[in-house]
Every structure is written in structure tokens, then in C-alpha cells.
Amino acid sequence: MEQYNRILVGSVVSVSYLTNRVTLSIPEITSDVVAPIAYPFVSLASGIRFLPRVGDSVLVGFGTQITPRILGYYLDDQQHQANLDLSRRGQCWYRSLEPGDIVIYSGSGETELFLSNSGLLRIGSGVNILSLDSLRRSIEGVCGSFNMSTLNGVSVAGGNPVRTLPSSNIPQVIPNMVALELAIQGMTGKVVEMKAGNVLDDLGVSEVGDTGPKAFSLKVFAGAIPIGELYFDPLTIGVKAPNLDLDGNTIRLGGLLAITPAVLGAPLVTLLTDMLTNLITLCGAVKAKEGMDSVVDLVEVNLQTLITTVAGILSERVFLT
Description:
With about 325 residues, the protein is of the alpha+beta class. Helix content is about 20%, strand content about 40%. It folds into 4 domains: about 70 residues, CATH 2.40.50.140; about 70 residues; about 90 residues, no CATH class; about 55 residues. It has a 7-stranded antiparallel β-sheet, with no helix packed on it. The protein has a 5-stranded antiparallel β-sheet with strand order 3-2-1-6-7, with no helix packed on it. A 5-stranded antiparallel β-sheet has the order 8-9-10-11-12, with no helix packed on it. Helix 2 packs antiparallel against helix 3. The longest helix has 26 residues. It is elongated and about 100 Å long. About 5% of the residues are buried.
């Protein structure tokens, strides 16, 4: 084991990861010295590795070997206080610690792993933060977007969606297009796909329904081919399927289903009319209350107008295409 007769504080002047060497400036020595990069927390099987940056302070040992050795990294009180001041102003992630706390962070402070003595595990990377709190028995997180998948083919994505565009062949975040996506894969391809918010296809292009961009889409696939879809666009509820079962009656129109108000409108008109008629009856019963006539009359007129309007819309509007 090498013995050291002098330990000095040096400042990193340059770093070479190719040669695994750093150049150090040491006030007590007139010329710069070169030393191997040290990894104090590394064993044969595990450890924490990092490269020092220019300006970092290190402890340098001089002993029986010609080559000086970096024995550890050094942060004096002045640097510690300066980092705390920056943290209080929100300019870095440097934090004060309680006894038993552990923190690992990158040089830029954008990435942090914090383990508190009180049972909090916090993983942060920029705006993305995941916190596990044993005392509160909670898991909380915030992120710009997320994309998770399992080995058996279930994937969930949300936030600003990511698409691999043909022009770049590199995954890119599509800004200002917040969406939620859920997909389930089978042996032969996608089985179910649900999208909400801004519904985008695999190339990042908005999917359009009958009256504009879709706000919700639920598709069922056979292999790579969608065989059924329920979707919402600004003015339409759309259903596409080879067959549709309405109240136990299967309707077949070959290929994709196209249902007009002649098929679907009448049941909906009847349902809504019955509901609104019951409300009008209730208004008539309330009229007996003194001082309520004018208010109830107004409600009754508006309900009757609503019945007429709904019937007119359903008789003209194609809901399923």
C-alpha cells in the first residue's frame, strides 16, 4: 500500500477522458501536474463514477510513487455557501442536507437523486420530477411528457407526444399538442388504441373526423388494420364498424357502418323528449306555489323550445358515418 507524505488541494485545469488523466494546478507547486482520474466510490462490481470538471477542487496525495494520486474531491466552506446561495435563488439544485441524507447530482444540477433520512426518494431531471414518500405513502410526479411500455405490449403516453418523423428519423417532441395515448399490442400487432386530446397519427398528423380534428378516438385492430372506431370531433360522435348492435338488434350495412338519423335519430328523440316532458310536468306541479308562476313559465317555455330544437337537430344530423 502506497504511503503519502503530503496531501495538497489542487484545482482541475483540464480533463481528458481518453487518457483518463487530469491536469492540476497546485499553489505549492510551480508547474502543473498530471494525475489519473480517481473514482473513490468504485469497486470491481459496482460504484459511482464521474468525471471532474475544470475548476473542481481535489485532494492530491504525494508519496513514494512518482505519479501523484487524486484521493478525493474537495468542497470548501466558501464554495458550499456560494452553492447554497445559488440554490436559494433557484439557480441550481444544490441543497442543504440533514444527518443521514444522501444526494447525487450532475455537475449542471439538472439531474438529481435525493434520498432523505425521513424516507423521501426524489428523482429529478429538469422539469421532470418523481417523488416517493414513505411517510405519506404517496408517489407523485410531474413531467413535460411521458411514454411507458411493458414487455407484453401495453404502452401509455401523455403530454406533448413524441413521433419519429420520416424527415429526420429521430424521435421528436411535438410542442403544444397535448395528448393521452394508450395502446395494447398483441402477437400480430396492435389490438386496441385509445387517444384523447389532440389525436395524432403515427406520423404526428392530426386525425380528422367529419367536422374537424378528432378530440377522442378508440380503435380496435385486426393486425395492423383498424376494424372499428369510436371518435368525437367538434360536432360529431362517429362510429365505424362492420356491424353495430343497437338494443339487441344487429345492423349490417357491409364494410363500414353508416347510420343516418332514420335509424338512430328516432330512439334518441323519443328518449330526450320523454325526459324533458317529465320536467315540464314537474314545472306544472310547482306552479301551485305562490310567487313561482313567472319563473316556472319561463323554464317551461325554454324546455319546450329545447325539445323542438333537439328533434330538429337529430332529424337532420348524421351522427355516425
